[in-house]
Design goal:
This protein is an alpha/beta fold and about 350 residues long. It is built from eight helices and 17 strands.
Length: about 350
């Protein structure tokens, strides 16, 4: 399966640099195997029915982007690091800029308002990835990162404008509770209390799972063939109560709606052959491409994704490649807004 099959041309002006205000005023593409329509996100409850259950990801984005100075003998240079994955109490895998100029053993001092965190570059990988060993550890390190870090906006936004104080709230969902993500579960950014109240009035229930989203989720695939792509691993958890709520809704005839590809990937990791979701607590590197047999979710709420990305492959698996290609062109023709701060879709899985 060629990665080119998941490419498309997107006018640059359709990349959303700010969310809709209010969030629920974002547009919503609703589609199944044969029909599609475009409305607004606050109409979502009208597309669901009593007994349906929405699965939200309650991960919380940490302020993972750090700015500082690289010190080596008598020289120093500016450096930026985006934390990607915690390795232990004081070590993080990070993406560093400029990565090529860094060497193992370099001292890095990351600074912010009234605080500094020191670190040693312990190892280097490919593509600017490095291992940082911080002077602080555990809760002390977490508190320091929270004090000096900035929201890790995706490259397609950060390249066009600076991060500001509005992003601290904009790039966090209303369900954010468990710190650990370095990218937001963006499908849930559109939910606000009025939407949740309308869902409750229709007796649409919800439950929460946790998947700490990594920055690799949104990156284009560089391999020519999808089979050659190595999927990143992310830590997730489905508690016993959440698993029971999902399975109870399924047995009662309700439909399971995943709020975002992150929730969907975790559900499909934990579901058994009978379609029952099991409690889960571990990493997952599930890679969903066309031909995948979905068992856990009937529908997916999701934003519009980057070309050639693993998420574009996932939604194409969910709806069919040709159908998804048509829906994306429909969204482009309608001037819908793309990516993390963009508009939304409600996709009903093809039979």
């Amino acid at each position: 399966m060629r990665v080119d099959d998941f490419d498309f041309d997107l006018p640059e002006e359709l990349i959303a640099l700010r969310p809709a205000r209010p969030r629920r005023s974002a547009r919503l593409l609703v589609a199944d195997a044969v029909r599609e329509s475009i409305g607004v996100f606050e109409d979502l409850p009208g597309h669901l029915r009593a007994g349906d259950l929405i699965v939200f990801n309650d991960t919380k984005v940490i302020p993972a982007r750090l700015n500082g100075v690289r010190r080596r003998e008598e020289s120093e240079a500016r450096v930026e690091a985006t934390l990607l994955k915690r390795l232990d109490d004081n070590r993080w895998l990070a993406l560093a800029k400029p990565g090529k100029r860094l060497k193992v053993g370099d001292r890095l001092d990351f600074t912010g308002p009234g605080a500094t965190i020191g670190a040693e570059l312990a190892a280097k990988g490919e593509g600017g990835q490095v291992e940082l060993r911080f002077d602080l550890s555990g809760p002390e390190l977490d508190a320091a990162v929270a004090a000096i870090g900035a929201p890790p906006l995706p490259p397609y936004i950060a390249a066009r404008r600076k991060t500001d104080v509005e992003d601290e709230g904009d790039y966090q969902t209303m369900f954010a509770e468990k710190p650990g993500a370095v990218a937001a579960p963006t499908a849930s950014l559109h939910f606000e209390p009025p939407v949740m109240a309308a869902l409750a009035e229709r007796c649409v229930r919800s439950t929460r799972v946790t998947l700490h989203v990594g920055a690799g989720t949104f990156l284009p695939v560089k391999a020519e063939n999808a089979a050659d792509h190595k999927m990143h691993a992310e830590w997730g958890e489905i508690g016993e109560e959440a698993a029971a709520a999902i399975n109870e809704a399924r047995r009662a005839g309700g439909r399971i709606i995943a709020a975002g590809t992150t929730a969907l990937r975790l559900l499909e990791t934990a579901v058994d052959e009978a379609g029952m979701v099991q409690p889960y607590r571990d990493e997952t590197d599930i890679f969903i491409t066309p031909g995948f047999a979905f068992r856990a979710a009937d529908a997916l709420i999701t934003n519009f994704h980057l070309p050639r990305s693993t998420l574009m492959m996932l939604v194409s698996a969910f709806m069919g490649v040709e159908r998804m290609r048509f829906l994306y062109q429909t969204a482009i023709d309608a001037r819908m807004r793309f990516y993390s701060y963009g508009d939304s879709s409600l996709l009903w899985r093809r039979p």
